[in-house]
Structures are given as C-alpha cells and as structure tokens.
Amino acid sequence: MKVIIHDLDNSYDEILEAKSDRMIAADGKYAACQGCFGCWTKHPAECFMKDKLRQACRIIGQADELVIITKNRYGEYSPAVKNVLDRSIGSSTPFSTYRGRQMHHTLRYGRHDLWKVIVYGDMTEAEKATFRYRAERNAINDGFERSEVLFMQDLKELEALV
Q: pTM higher than 0.90 for the full model?
C-alpha cells in the first residue's frame, strides 16, 4: 500500500489521490499528540482523540511505501507533517528490539519498503544533508528497508516525483 502524507493545499489532492492508496493531508485540522502513549498500550494503534488522525498509526503502519511531501523548515519537516508523524507512534510497540545493531521499538505491522521524502522550498546544502540524515534514521526506526529524499525547486515537478 502506498501512503502519501503532504502539507500542500487541497488543489493537489486529486493528483495525489490518483497516485496513492491512502492520503493524509497535513492541514493542521487535528490535535497535536498529547504524549499519553495510549496508542501503544490502552488501545493499540488507535489514538484516543476523535479526529482525522485517529487511525494514522494503522494507515502509516500498513504502508509498504510512505511518501512524505513537505516544505523545508530549516532542514526538517513542516510542523503540520511533524504532527502527523508524531501521531503515528502507535505503528510500533513499546517493546524494544535490535535492528541494524541498534535498539528500536518492535514493529507492530512488520517491515516496509520505501520511506520517501519530497522536499520543496528554498534550502541550503546543509539543510539537504539534514533531510537525508533524518529520512535515513526515520526509515530505520520505522522498519523501512530504504529511504530516498528528492528536492524540488518548483511544485510543477511534483507529479513526476510522486
């Protein structure tokens, strides 16, 4: 299953829906993670908050390919995208295991294929390096086999990159 998380306006929804099985619009119309860890323990992979991200853990956890489209914010995800990723912590369990000679949380849904980040907006070479590192670490932590980061100067390139 291909899942797209994006912080673009809704004029891109039709293009992105055609290229994915599920799409999560990081539009800020949801609550930020409360850090209660209920999605880990009390009701696994489901947030207690009854908003559009309630099932984000399951959607992201079942993705074979996760595509994140984000505006550059000093070499990091946009705040709206970061909130979606924070709300997906329940895609793993509170238990730990070794992956790649490092301690990580046990995956609730098993291994995945590709963690892909498409970044738009102005950025320096240092910010690009930060994005590459962040995507690599996120992929390992969430059980993805590989990561890829693409940089766009113009949103007209988006359809070809997704």
A: yes
